[in-house]
Amino acid sequence: MVDQNRKIGFIGAGKMGSALMQGIIKAEIVKPENLGAADVYEPFLNDLKAKLGINISTDNSVIASASDILILAVKPQTLGSVLENLKADITSDKLIISIAAGVPLSTYENALPAGTRVIRVMPNIAATVSEAASGIAPGKNATPEDVKTALEIFSAVGTAVQVSESIMDAVTGLSGSGPAFIFPVIEAMADGAVLEGMDRKSALTLSAQTVLGAAKMMLETGLHPGELKDMVTSPAGTTIQGVHALEEAGVRAAFMNAVIRATERSRELGKK
């Protein structure tokens, strides 16, 4: 368990960073006074301070130097300059965690002082409702205790699993990008119900709850999706007709290709 007296700092306080901060406080991983955030947008920082009671600064060095665990929640295109500016503030006793999409561990290990302990994480936007799906890949200097720390932090906003870095692009394509693949499904299912006479609000509510319930059922029972599908599809019933329509439309291939394309793009970003 993370020592509550350890200080966690965030470089970047956007949607993902602020969602993680809220999750950390809610899970009582550290107290608000031991949490800090740096960002260029001061009004947003002031709002976070008022809401969460954390420490804030527009100077990255102030937060970095005061932190035992430093979480880099910045966009990949700004990461290079951030790392360059943080070099002097990174010491061997600090754990660095980055959630920048597509950026390999070697980028951090080459840019920061030798021996720096780094962990790469790919969460997703569902962290804002404490239902993120996060993949965690440790760098060569990270210890087993560092991995436990990262798992605890990201489990505070959903589910986190340790993976090898070689599949982090696939994690990005699956869970990182995945919510955007599901939202159109929820909307399309609701559209079908609206076409059949249901009001829009009820249709969206039932559609979203159906997706949530199906996912929860699979996670809690541990059953294969195919088994769960068979539990619903009675012979010559309504569900098998709908499943047949999905198969005719090539829905499986479409979702597979969505994950593959997103994974490929993650690889491209990591090479820039």
Task: Summarize the structure in words.
This protein has 272 residues and is an alpha/beta fold. Helix 7 crosses helix 12 and helix 8 crosses helix 9. The mean pLDDT is 93. Strands 3-2-1-4-5-6-7-8 form an 8-stranded mixed beta sheet, with helices on both faces. It has helices spanning 15-26, 42-52, 60-66, 76-86, 105-111, 144-155, 168-176, 178-195, 200-221, 225-232, 238-248, 251-271, and strands at residues 8-11, 35-38, 55-57, 69-72, 95-98, 117-122, 132-138, 158-162.
Strand order of the largest sheet: 3-2-1-4-5-6-7-8
Q: What's the count of strands?
A: 8
Shape, per Cα inertia axes: elongated
How large is the radius of gyration? 21 Å
Mean pLDDT: 93
- Estimated structural class: alpha/beta
Q: How helical, in percent, are the residues?
A: 40-55%
Helix count equals 12
Distance between the termini: 36 Å
Q: Which residues form runs of ≥5 with pLDDT under 50?
A: none
Order of H and E elements: EHEHEHEHEHEEHEHHHHHH
What percentage of the residues does DSSP assign to strands (E)? 5-15%
Largest sheet: number of strands, sense, barrel closure: 8 strands, mixed
Précis, in short:
The protein has 272 residues and is an alpha/beta fold. Helix content is 55%, strand content 14%. The protein has helices at 15-26, 42-52, 60-66, 76-86, 105-111, 144-155, 168-176, 178-195, 200-221, 225-232, 238-248, 251-271, and strands spanning 8-11, 35-38, 55-57, 69-72, 95-98, 117-122, 132-138, 158-162.
